[in-house]
Amino acid sequence: MVEFFELEQLVAFADHGTLSRAAEQLHLSQPSLTRTIKRLEAELRVPLVDRERNRVTLNANGEMAVRHARRILEARDGLVEQVREFDRANRTIAIASCAPAPLWDMAPLLSSLYPDTSIATTLTETEDFTSDLIAGRIQLAIGTSAASEAGGLLSIPFMREHLHLVVPRSHMLARLNTIRFRDFNGLDLLLRPDIGFWARVCRELLPASRLMFQTGADTFQALVRRTDLPYFATDVSLRSVNRIPEDRVAIPIADEEASAVFHLLCRKTDAERFAMFLRKVADMGRSAGLLAADRP
After folding, report:
1. Are 122 and 94 in contact (CB under 8 A)?
2. Average pLDDT for consecutive 10-residue bins of the chain (296 residues)?
3. Which of 190, 224, 227, 194 is closest to 206 using CA atoms?
4. How far apart are CA 40 and CA 51, in angstroms?
5. What pTM value is reported for the model?
6. Cys-Cys link to 237, which of 37, 75, 209, 242 (CB 3.0-4.6 A)?
7. SS3 letters for the chain?
8. What radius of gyration do the chain's Cα atoms show?
9. Quick one: CA dihedral 130, 136, 138, 139, positive or negative?
10. Where does the HTH lysR-type domain start and stop, copy by copy (predicted)?
11. Which residues, including other chains, have CB under 8 Å from residue 255's CB and lie 6 or more apart?
12. Are strands 231-234 and 153-168 parallel, antiparallel or unpaired?
């Protein structure tokens, strides 16, 4: 029976042109490679090389065998990768989100419902996860729009989030009950880098502002305490993780772009696998007033 290592050595011979160079690349002795070629000829019952006094070259049979060997080796490698990817997908739930706040509830919920599965989260500025979901690179996604029914995806709206500007109480904007992006376009602003699509919103609607992204949480908090720089928070973060210092006030931003409704997305073919999770998410949507009470 022809073995993979024999095909690999045959292809190496074809690629390098001589037995000596192929043997060197394969870390084999030349006699060992010669024996492999002879063994293949015996197994296939045809000559694969022409042997001259100081030269061995592939004949027409050998060239045809090399073409088939390349396809077989490519198929083997594809099989290995696909099986491994299938195994990883069954043992890992990859969820991507365009904003951090939805993951604060979703990741723990997934861990509690599927305790034997690893949860891999990704935060990105993109809001279109269709291709990654269909290709199976991720199993779940959180975006700001519903999925197209024709695209093989289902979506469940489950959460609202609204952007606020946080300023010192002594700031000239602090007296306002609401604010618009145009009111503070041009100010220096402090931002965290891990805010997903909100970063793109700020760049697009505040072109005259200097956006000062600070990576470390400690550095960010130190700048909040020691400077008068405004920064952003959301109603969700203010309720859960970001308490406003007593000397600051959070002002809701009235522009439409400052509000988002988040949708959970997944492939329809995965609906049974994630049935428990989808029911929980639908309950969240009903509690938020985003789903009708009678929707399953």
Report:
1. yes
2. 89 90 88 90 91 88 92 91 78 92 94 91 88 89 83 92 95 95 96 92 96 88 90 90 84 96 94 94 94 64
3. 190
4. 15
5. 0.70
6. 242
7. CCCHHHHHHHHHHHHHCCHHHHHHHHCCCHHHHHHHHHHHHHHHCCCCEEECCCCEEECHHHHHHHHHHHHHHHHHHHHHHHHHHHHHHHHEEEEEECCCHHHHHHHHHHHHHCCCCEEEEEECCCCCCHHHHHHCCCCEEEECCCCCHHHCEEEEEEEEEEEEEEEECCCCCCCCCCECHHHHCCCEEEECCCCCHHHHHHHHHCCCCEEEECCCHHHHHHHHHHCCCCEEEEHHHHHHCCCCCCCEEEEEECCHHHEEEEEEEEEHHHCCCCHHHHHHHHHHHHHCCCCCCCCC
8. 30
9. positive
10. 10-59
11. 180, 181, 205
12. antiparallel
Query: For position 22, what pLDDT does the model report?
Result: 87
> What residue ranges define each of the domains in the chain, with the CATH number in brackets?
4-87 (1.10.10.10), 90-159+260-287 (3.40.190.10), 161-258 (3.40.190.10)
What is the residue whose two structure tokens read 């009950």?
Answer: 177
Look up residue 104 and give its two tokens: 């604060």
Please give the structure tokens belonging to residue 116: 């034997």
Task: Tell me what pLDDT residue 150 has.
Answer: 62
Q: In the prediction, which pLDDT does 130 show?
A: 87
